[in-house]
From TrEMBL:
The chain crosses the membrane at residues 29-46, 52-74, 95-123, 129-156, 163-184, 196-219. It comes from Methylomarinum roseum. GO terms for cellular component: plasma membrane. This is Heme exporter protein B. Belongs to the CcmB/CycW/HelB family.
Amino acid sequence: MSLTAAFIAIIRRDLVLAFRRRAEIANPLFFFVLIVTLFPLGIGAQPKLLQAMAPGIIWVSALLAAMLSLDSLFRSDFDDGSLEQMLLSSHPISVLVLAKILAHWLVTGLPLLLVAPLLALFLGMPEQALGTLLITLVLGTPVLSLIGAIGVALTVGLRRGGMILSLLVLPLYIPVLIFASNAVDMAATGLPVSAQFNILAAILLMALVLAPLPAASALKMSIN
């Protein structure tokens, strides 16, 4: 099997398994919706305050929802032994890991993109900021999966690695949160956001290049 065929086969396999276990798709999405809808109940129905906080609310909720789904990235493969088979493959492990990360984003990150505009309108976000919100999510949510894959690979062999995983990846998520929410906030006021887009795109490219290699190495250490 060629490398491209193996890459596509892993994505197809993970998508089929995810749709068989629909809770893996629904849980992060419901969690995302629940967090956003609880904010108006907690701080009161104050339109101006909600509108000002909307970018931060959406992005913090997306970050937490992404963290909720991270453990499923390699856990089932580790439990059933297919992760060992992947590591024994003749293909580069980093490329196969990238395929699993892409499948994870399609299952968990893409649904957030579809729901986020409706929740943003619910919070009173101006319509001119919705496009910016979608662009930041397109650029930022793959970074969450890429960085999270390193943390999951380091903790996949631990029975209770959820807390350690959070401590590992949460500090690395902060730059994405800062630049993404700031871009949406500035777009809502009519200010240019090209600088934030460029920084998020640079972070995404760096994560695409750098994250699969340490994730693959961490998986080898966790298996051994």
